[in-house]
Each structure stands twice: as structure tokens, then as C-alpha cells.
Amino acid sequence: MAIAYPHFIASDKTPVVNPPRISPLPSPHSPPPPPPQVILTQDELKKIAAYKAVESVESGMVLGLGTGSTAKHAVTRIGDLLRQGKLTNITGIPTSRMTHELALSVGIPLSDLDSHPVVDLAIDGADEVDPHMNLVKGRGGSLLREKMIEGACKKFIVIVDESKLVEHIGGSGLAMPVEVVPFCWKFTAERLRLLFEEAGCLARLRRDGEGGEPFVTDNKNYIVDLYFERDIGELMVASDRILRLPGVVEHGMFLGMATTLIVAGELGVKVKNK
Ligand SMILES: O=C(CO)[C@H](O)[C@H](O)COP(=O)(O)O
Questions:
Q1: CATH class of the structural domain 42-267
Q2: Which of 119, 168, 182, 203 could join 189 via S-S bond, C-beta 3.0 to 4.6 A?
Q3: Do the beta carbons of residue 244 and residue 141 sit within 8 Å?
Q4: What is the pTM of this model?
């Protein structure tokens, strides 16, 4: 069931969202006013999902820190709670260089998988989420580190606004990222396209702006974005076929990895557990 947003709550657990406007007193003859409409921006929805996820963080945890505009809210919230002394002894494992910088700036002590091979909890956003909690990630370019860290977690909470929900992942017409080595990337991109020819696949190298230099990941690789006109079929089969191609490092399908999904939408926040 959805939990509706309170209009004005200032607690440690819930962000303040759209306080109600004060309107003139109604005349005794006028009909009762409709309930106030709360219109939240997409970023406010991301923040609500992120804050809800941070309620699961406990002192002493090793945390996977996600990347992107949704995960950013979770990282800054954890930093706030550390500063207030409400969380202690947190170790963060960042999923990108960008998150590394952000986490340091908000005072989260950091480590890595070499020192902490088991992660208690990761919180991260996603680009697409299907009804089985399979994900597409990596439109922000951090899919390899995200998959390594989130694959080492006991619990992985995915935080999204409702625009990310899809019936079939890969079917939204948006990019399905694949990280490839730079060596002969055109050859690898063409082999990826041929793998999914029947699905009307287009394979495009990601660049820094239209016609710019290739986008380079934190691991010094490139990203080939796949676009499909039709369904790609069984996701595990598609995953195996991609991973078997020499030159491919990792892809952005995160299948069966999420343990909890938090979705913030206009009607409230929904939490779904596996
Ligand atoms: O996978 C990711 C980065 O590699 C992000 O989690 C994903 O792109 C969602 O980003 P945002 O929260 O900005 O919508």
C-alpha cells in the first residue's frame, strides 16, 4: 500500500514537502474545499525515495553508496545524520569517482571492496525497473563499479521516482549501456548489434556531447549504448550472450539483484520487498 505524503512534517525521517498555502476562510455557504494538491518535482520525489531508504541505515554498517541524481540525496542524508551524531561508525564504499568526491565532502569515511568484501547495504538509483525488480543501470556511466559493489551486498535498496517503472526492461526505447574496452570498439559494437539484430538493435558509442570525444568510464573503458525496436526476449539469455563477447566488460542489466524497491510518486511512496 502507498504511504501518502504528509504536507508538513519536519522530522528526522521525512523531508519537508510543500507546506500548504494559507487561503482565505471559506464562507459558510461555500462547498468544502478540495483537498490541497501537492505537486512535487521529479527531484523532490527522488529525495523522498532516498530519505526513506536511509531509514534502513544503522550505525556500524558498511554501505554501498550509489551514483546519480537520486543516490546523491541518500549520500548527503547519510552525511547529515553522521554530523548530527545520529549515525556512527559508517564505512562507505562509493560506486564511482563522483560519489567518492561527494561522500568525502559530506564526511562519510570511505573504503573499498578489497578491505570490505561484504557490504551490509547498498542504496542506488536505476534507469528502468520492471515488475520483477530487474533493473537497467549505467546511463550515468558507473555500471561496472555499481554491479561489483551491489553484487557484494546483503541488501540492495533501489530508489526511484515512478517515471522509472517499465513493463519490460530494454523496451523503453532508451539506452541499454554496455561497457567495452576501447580496443577495436567498433568491432565490439557491431558484434553487439548483430547479437540483437532480430530485436532491431542499434549500437552507438557514447560520447561527451554530440560528435564529441568518447565518454570514458572510471575504469578507462567506453560505453556502447544499445537501443532496441523490439523485445529482447529472455533477459538472462540476453545477459549471457552479451557477457560472452570478447571486448565486453559488463552490461547494465541488473537481474535479480535488488532486494527492496522504493518508488516515490505523486500518490505516495511504495516499498516493495523481494
Ligand atoms: O546507474 C546509474 C549510474 O550509472 C544511476 O543509478 C542511474 O543512471 C539513475 O540515475 P538518476 O538517479 O540520476 O536518475
A1: alpha beta
A2: 203
A3: no
A4: 0.88
Of 243, 79, 273, 258, nearest to 153 (Cα)?
Answer: 258
- Among the atoms of ligand 1, which is closest to the Cα of residue 252? 1
As a whole number of angstroms, the distance between CA 111 and CA 91 comes to 6
Global ipTM? 0.98
Quickly tell me which residue has 578491505 as its cell: 115
Q: From 73, 159, 162, select the one nearest 121 (Cα to Cα).
A: 159
Half-sphere exposure (CA, 13 Å, Cβ side) for 236? 3
Residues whose beta carbon lies within 6 Å of some atom of ligand 1: 66-71, 124-127, 137-143, 146
- Going from N- to C-terminal start, the domains of the chain cover 42-267
- The pLDDT tens digits of the residues spanning 174-225 come to 999 999 999 999 999 999 999 999 999 999 999 998 889 999 999 999 999 9
- Closest approach atom of ligand 1 to CA 142: 4
What whole-number distance in Å separates Cα of residue 88 and Cα of residue 186? 48
**Per-residue pLDDT, 16:** 41
> What's the CA gap between 262 and 121, in Å, rounded?
14
127 CA distance to ligand 1 centroid (A)? 6
Cell numbers for 120: 551490509
Q: Is 146 a catalytic site residue? A: yes
Cross-strand partners of 260: 157, 273
The values of phi and psi at residue 226, to 5°, are: -100, 135
One-letter identity of residue 30 = S
